[in-house]
Amino acid sequence: MTTTREFQGITLERLREHVWEIPQEEPMGVPARVLASEELLEQIGDDKTLQQLKNATQLPGMQKYALCMPDGHQGYGFPVGGVGAIDAETGCISPGAVGFDINCGVRMIRTNLTYDDLKGTERELVNSLFENIPSGLGGGGIVQTDVDTVDEVLERGLDWAVEEGYATREDMLHCEDEGRRPDAVADYVSEKAKNRGRNQLGSLGSGNHFLEVQRVTDIYQADVADAFGLQPDQIVVLIHCGSRGLGHQVCSDYVRRIEQKHGDFLKSLPDKDLAAAPAKSQLAAEYYGAMGAAINFAWVNRQLITHQTRRVFERVFDRDWQDMEMELLYDVAHNIAKKEPHDVDGDTRELYVHRKGATRAFPAGREEVPRAYRDVGQPVIIPGSMGAGSYVLRGGAESMNETFGSTAHGAGRTMSRTQAKKDYRGETVQNDLEERNQIYVKAQSGATIAEEAPGVYKDVDEVVRVSEELGIGDAVARTFPVCNIKG
Fold first, then answer.
1. Is 342 a catalytic residue?
2. Annotation-wise, does 205 bind a ligand?
């Protein structure tokens, strides 16, 4: 069995199956760990992921180790698939370790429809979803409003959506943090950010964001699947998007302010894209409040898309959405930093847990898990490519010890968008998916489909296998695409 591997001059030591460590050396503050099989490690080592992970260990206050999940790949400064838990008293908070698309995340909507109920409507359904749910770059949303309303969304999250008739109380109860960050402060969000967001509420955006109608193909843990309301051949809807231009602007604003206010602090870091504000500084408090507001915006954004999806299903299937039991299973963020208590060397400490392209995966018994799922563990949604299917997991028993309660967030890219457009033609990918797999895809352009071709992603089955064998996330069910709309 291989005990060490080297990629681009960085040596990793195998600690045990699927756990690789970059030993601490100057100027690293802690070791770095990669959770991957040898197959996934080959892909992770192929770009700058390992160097970025090693750089991340220099963020002041990093606890235990910086982590890369099985789906990790190169990002801006901090790797996608990265987890960093930083002391909230003596460390820092890093917009770079959260990312530009604050609260990019996923939600799954259950239905009582079966695949047989849907057959024959695929083309009508994908066209109707595409026509009624805004996607692509720029403006356009289900709700286009003024800055005062944006302020309410930023402060109140799903409370606002319930009051306005776009959400139910059950939707809130099945969302991470019940769809509202209590420490959100709209005043810490710039007018420019608010103006970018006011015309984008209820829109997918572009890139890897999507809405996908899926069918449940496999159940691995019947009791947990029953608690989640999942069964074989059931139709579900997966929504993946974030805080749009508003969240991007929040990140840009605070990176720039950190450069101006804490330039000396930033110079001590190996990469300016790791931009961070010292804990207890005014700028750290303001970023945390602004980030919380952008998190709320993203939850409302996904909720408005849910509302519109329910309306489309009502028209296509000529039934009320309540009759189709189109209830939210769960909504979970995967670009976020939150204060959480964690055990470090026998002491409980408050940490800023940064998850950038990583999903919270709390096990059974945690009070943060919705009451409906507390006995079985938090639902974790792992999207695959539009040709490979996705997984529903539950938070694993070892996640708190191994990963600060985290696991992967998807399949993870293996190819840049630029390269994908050279290697694939959108029309060919679209036709192949329909002819070979009966998957109907609709997007703003062929280039978008080429960028998101199944071949540009890691093997989601392998990502989930590693997660399960490490005990950080247990497979509950697998789904397969039927219809997919993209920006």
1. no
2. no
